[in-house]
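Box S2. Input/output pair 1.
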Amino acid sequence: MFDVTWVFIRLGGFFFFGGLMLDIEIAILIMGLVVLHMNFGLKTILNDYIHINKIKIFLVFLIRLSSIEIGRYILEILL
């Protein structure tokens, strides 16, 4: 059967890499938004399921550290 989701995923990747060749600023903006989305999602999960403050503070620190590292790796790949 024809699956339109499969087509959209392939087209998204094709347009992303095509846009990467044309304009690097848009790709950096998209990657920044992906890291921000990941950061907000992980903090929401953390606040919903972790109730001990010491563990929560430590995990927030790890989320911030991982966001910085992922952002650095993305910039390293793009530049």
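Box S3. Input/output pair 2.
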Amino acid sequence: MSVILTSHWKALIPVLVMRIVIPFTEYLSPALLGELLDYIEGPSEDSSSTSLLASWNGEEKPLIYGLAIAFSMFAVHAILPMMNTYILRSIYLIGTEIKAALIAMIYRKALSLSPDARRRSSTGAITNHMSVDATLWEDGVEKLSVWISLPFDFVICLFMLYRLLGWSLLAGVIAILALIPLQLWRARVFKTLEEDRLKTTDERVRLTSEILSNVKIVKLYGWESAFRNKILASRNVELSVLRRMGVLEAIMSVIFASSSLIVSLVTFSVYVTFGNGVLTPKIVFVSMTLFDLLHTPLSRLAEG
């Protein structure tokens, strides 16, 4: 890992810096939405208490202020996709370089194996290292960049929610945390299924490689149908695992898509009942947006 970081640090640093900048840019959107709603409602006595940006208390704001907010929201939503696209492109290039380097290293090592080592390492196992294991390192680059931004996501989101809801935000956070065991269970099941998929993929790749390397013997003895059935059986097992992963992902997506409404309902109930607060359009819409944004880093944290 240290060798990979050392050889690609020049390309990784801009990606990591961008990952740190993105949370600040992302949370500008709900802050600007709150200011726009304040501007539409007009000046009020308690608007400054929940304001997420600087405002002119008690004074009617000019039209240019509202236009500036609207333009800023447009700019944020235009910049964010470009930043995310840059990160995805950079991660793809870095991951591809790492994968290519690992494949080349495995290939060079395979060419220099001693006769005894060749007997212990089959062609299928070597091919599997090149086609499957190298890809895992490619995916690791993306996970590294995501984990860099998680602390900033938490701090910014919780601060903005506290400015809006006070300590009532804890009800929403607890409701989100209550979903973490379900997310952990999902991650654990997915890990098991992924291990099963890798095993079946390893077996299929190994079997296919060994059959192709001995295709003359297979054709000589007329074993095409028998070996084709073996490959199809291995592939069917792999497809069965993929099917189970897809069904589980679909069910969990529905559950977590509806969780935002539950979290918002719990939070607003506590805010009105125990916090003696008054729900305004700004509090409702901005809080729901922030809870949606908070749910993403918590899900990533649970997935590991």
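Caption for Box S3: Residues 224-273 form the longest helix (50 residues). The chain has one domain: 2-303.
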